[in-house]
Amino acid sequence: MTYALQAEGLVKRFGRTTALAGLDLCAEPGTVLGVLGPNGAGKTTAIRVLATLARPDGGTARVHGLDVVRQAQQVRRLIALCGQHTTVDEELTGLGNLVMIGRLLDLPKADAVRRATGLLDRFELGDAAGRPVAGYSSGMRRRLDLAASLVGRPRVVFLDEPSVGLDPGRREDLWRIIRGLAAEGATVLLTTQYLEEADALADRVAVVDGGRTIAHGSPAELKRLVGGQAIAVRPARADDVDAVMSIMAGVAGRRPERVNRHEVVVPVEGDGAVVAMMQRFRGAGIPVSELSLRLPSLDEAFLALTGTRRRVEDNQDSSEVAA
Amino acid sequence: MTTTMDGRYGHLRRLRLLRHSLVLARRSLAKTARNPGAVINGVVTPALFLVLFVYLFGGAVAGSTGAYLQYLFPGILVMSAGLAGMLSTGVALTIDMRKGVFDRFRSLPIGRSAPLLGSLVADVVRYAAAVAILFGIGYLLGFRAQAGLPHALAAAALAIGFGFCLSWLTVLLAVLVRDENAVLAFSFFAFLPLQLGTSLAAPADTLPGWLRAWAQANPVTHVMDASRALLTGAPAGDSVALSLAWSAGLLVVFCPLAVLAYSRRQ
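^ inputs. structure came back:
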């Protein structure tokens, strides 16, 4: 099958810095690919290469089978880019901004106005359509910026850290819009530093660090990859905590950790541990108000992935970190 | 299908480039209409020089303010177009690049040079506006184009054309340094020798030797002389030909360099 997005071994250097050191990415049509990584991991550079703004120094990148270097102009008909900074013009109205993009996409004037009006309504900017963007709030600007990238009905949308600077309520709105895009069949690549965001939106997540993909999979697969599922127990009576801890230690074979006054967590391997623990609690007559099997959060997964890699590298030049 | 259209029908592609450039020129002009700083700069500075020089020195230099106005105004006109050329496009380009606006444009299926061309087309309109306003101010002060309307239009066209060709130098600078403050500083420092080290305020042969040598080598002097000849019927010499040659030379050298630097920028 043809991937909507496929990058293989992308390399990009800026002078002596290597921004991409053999990056691999792929996304099936109609899915959301989350590219997760810390600052300087190469996320923005990857988007710039895929969106035909920067030429890779090595490797290949394709959008719906079209090469981003040799068939750049055809790729541009399929994609839309929404960068970190809002790129709408302050001096123009919301409508003016969108109509201009429509005209640049060769829409006849009437169609451009119709398309712009539709998008403004969809992004709840209909009332502000005739006002200059200078008077818009930052949330409105961001929505207008996203609307501007959708004028051409792109099949692939690149969103570079879309929710930076949005308050939580607005972030939910944005997430709804992004899910809507994928539901309509567009492929979305979004970069983020928020693990929560990748977990909430992405069908697949690529974890990027140092210009390389260090892990690739569904959020659930990534969590499994990191391993370390854990059982969390909340005894009904606070006095039982010590007894609960010793039972948990017996089943799991390691020391549980007391997260707070009422909750104890221990990492376990295998699925039998939950049942075994419940039986022991019942046998000991200890009432438990909550017992749950937890997968690690993407946050922990990310730390484990990047942390491990760093530690391996560190070991080569210093042994202190080994402990 | 689109590939064969793009590849086989080159004129269609050029037509699209033209249309996209005009859309972007309208964007640039709409921005100016809301925020007319560049045009005001291109008018106010020359107008200030005009009023100051005419009323402060006019009597002493030319015997009367009216006579000096006739000498000074054609040069001020050239200064206005040149100043607007050095300020507007270069500065606007760096701002657009910094804000990522050009990234959006460049991810659209439009010609790579369309944003650049659009900005420059808008510039020509801005120069024309600045020159027209300046003509109005000159008229109010008492300046009359003695050589007739066609010659006056030719002088305006010459000044605008020179401003346009000169602006490619600042465009190149803007694309290379990507910092509007650097472009502004350059324009400010270039202003003195380029615009004032000329026959603007007095004929070049009345200047001291070193300054005369510079003024006679300075292309702006030729354009000012040509403007003066066309507007007041002063002897033209080879100033018109030299102005056209310099304009063409600036364009031929800096336009390809700027376009190259611009489309290579990543």
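The interface with chain A takes residues 2-3, 6, 16, 20, 23-24, 26-27, 30-31, 33-35, 99-101, 103-110, 114, 266 of chain B (CB under 8 Å). Chain B has a mean pLDDT of 84.
thumbs up if we can close this ticket
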